[in-house]
Amino acid sequence: MLNKKYIFFLSFGIIYFFGIISQNNLFAQTDISYKSVFLSRFLQNIHFPTGAIKNNEIVIGVAGDENTLKNVNVALGGQSIKGYRIVVKPVVEAKDVKTINLIYINNSSKVYLSSIFQELQNRAVITVTEKDGFLQKGSDLNFLKPEDRWTYEINENQLSTKGFTYEKEIVTRAYNRDGGNVLAKDKVNRIEVKVPKANTEEERRLRENYLKAQKELEELKSTSQKTRTEIVQVEVDMTPEQKKKFEAELAEINANLSQEQQKAKLIALQTEKFKLEKETENEHLKAEQEKAQAQQRQTIIISVIAVLFLLSLFIIFFIFYRRRKKMIDELEKAKNELAQNLQLINIKNQELDAKNQEIEKHSKETEQSIYSAKTIQTAMLPTANTLKDYVGDFFLIYEPKDIVSGDFYWATQKENQIFVIVADCTGHGVPGAFMSLVGMNLLDEIINQKNILSPDDILEEMHLGVYHRLQQNVGVNKDGMDLCLCIIEKSNLDKIKVQFAGAKRPFYFTENNQLQRIQGSRKYIGGMMKEGKKFEKHEFLLEKNAMIYLTSDGYGDAPNEKREKFSSQRLENLLLEIHQKDLSTQYNTLNETLQNHKGTEPNRDDITILGIRV
Fold it and tell me: Which of 62, 100, 398, 569 makes a 20 to 30 Å CA pair with 408?
């Protein structure tokens, strides 16, 4: 039969069991969160050796249970410390430490620590533990809990050996076993969750009640047993022994007493028999009452246990309900934040669409302007008929990298002298096109208006014109151009006189079935004024039907899909190979060779080649 003390401890045990589970979980989360915050501050004040951090990430390995991993990931995962993103990953076995920068070994870890320390030898990895004596076993940082606060030990020599440097404050705040003013070793205690003890007076009272109830129960059992024995022994018609005794007494009465005495004795015996039967009946009733009371007490005890059990279930369900409600609230909050973020994203997308439309509009306007500029630039260049009138038989390859070009070609005639120029201006696209207009304008002014006809003097005037027109004497503008200029004097003689001057560009011509190359002066048109450096003039005679070639550097610099240049040497070999062919074939060969080399790769620069049969 259950007693009050048993009921009390049963109910208290159920409630305390669930309380301990919740409390331990809370303590564990608080401790891990505290250590995670400390690790964050520790990483902010320590410097890893060069090359120890890969992919701009500090990887923290956690050797512990899922709760430890979860709390460290919540506290540190995804954070940015000194520009590095924090990544948290589990360590289940020793090989998992190959890609980490810091390992945190929790007391709940089931990994063999000796295998971890063996794997981490001679590696720039910070080892963090939380057990007394682990600093001497190879740990770099070890958590301890002296009395009511967490502190840590640090292995300075080992960190320095691994190549780490750190702020002085890390060491001054650390726990020092040998320090005079630091907590002593014997005060280092572990966290213990103690089960609260019941009140001593209450225990004594419950013990007395229990012993008293036990004694009453034993007496009741003894009495009931005795009563049951007496009930068996006493029957309504008396037992055989009583009958035998009664008959003996009757015989004695019959023998020794008179008739009256026998009657009196018989009445006395019948009275005693009735009395005995009455007492037996009372004992039987009393036993039945005791049994009913015992059943009632047992029913009460079972009812109390059932109530306590239901109460415990209610508490458990209430705790789960609160947690579930909290999770639902957090999810709802996250959902609302997500909706707000989506709304902001939609607004930003709309703004971006508007900006894109505006940019597209401006882009179209700019493109239209550039096409208009192309029309102007094309109009400034000599037409094919003009070139044919000047030089006769020729071919021209002219491929701007963009819509407009930084390369230009130009020609004019003064009496029997034909002036032919191919120039490569600084840059390409719109800036190069502006420079080309400046160059063509200067050539017209120098040759046609000022009547300067020597090639070296023309280039010198071009240099001064660009320098002054772009105000390069007062600004930082250093733009200019490379240029190849030749003057062809045609006559009735078998020989043709050619004059050449170049600004960093070569001049090619054929003689005796060989390709000859004359390098231009190492002086640039525009930019810095260099005293004493002049453009060099070259004069020579060519046989009729010889070829001359004026080029920019775009063909030689054209890349293939491997980003390899075609090269000037290959261009010279190609010109030698085709110089005897008609100009249409030369043009097609140069074009096809260029396209085969480039493939789908776009031009790197503007391309210009002018070939003339003299």
Answer: 569
Q: CB-based contacts of 232: which residues, under 8 Å, 6+ apart?
A: none
481, 435 Cβ separation under 8 angstroms: yes
Go through the chain and tell me how many residues it has: 614
Distance between CA atoms of residues 586 and 481, nearest Å: 27
Residue 111, CB-side half-sphere exposure with 13 Å CA sphere: 26
Residue whose C-alpha is closest to residue 41's, from 81, 68, 69: 81
Longest dimension (CA), the chain: 203
Q: Is the distance from CB of 116 to CB of 63 less than 8 angstroms?
A: yes
3-state secondary structure of 35: helix
Question: What is the average per-residue pLDDT within 311-337?
Answer: 90
Q: What confidence tier does 256 reach under pLDDT thresholds 50, 70, 90?
A: low
How far is it, in rounded angstroms, from Cα 418 to Cα 111? 90
Cβ–Cβ under 8 Å, residues 447 and 414: yes
User: What value does the CA radius of gyration of the chain take, rounded to a whole number of Å?
Assistant: 56
Structure confidence by residue, pLDDT tens digits, 561-601: 999 999 999 999 999 999 999 999 999 999 999 999 999 99
Burial class (CB within 10 angstroms; exposed 0-12, middle 13-18, buried 19+) of 553? buried
Q: Compute how many other C-beta atoms are within 10 angstroms of the C-beta atom of residue 94.
A: 18
Distances from the Cα of 70 to the Cα of 27, 73, 77, 197, angstroms: 15, 5, 10, 34
Of residues 31 and 199, the one with the higher pLDDT is 31
The pairing of beta strand 507-511 with beta strand 141-144: unpaired
- Whole-model pTM: value is 0.47
Q: Give, in order, the Cα–Cα distances in Å from 480 to each of 252, 472, 535.
A: 166, 10, 15
Residue type, 294: A
Q: How far apart are CA 75 and CA 43, in angstroms?
A: 14
Q: What is the pLDDT of residues 491-523, one digit of tens each?
A: 777 889 999 999 999 999 999 999 999 999 999
- Strands 394-399 and 495-503 come out as unpaired
The Cα-based distances of 165 to 9, 79, 80, 278, 547 in angstroms read 57, 22, 20, 103, 72
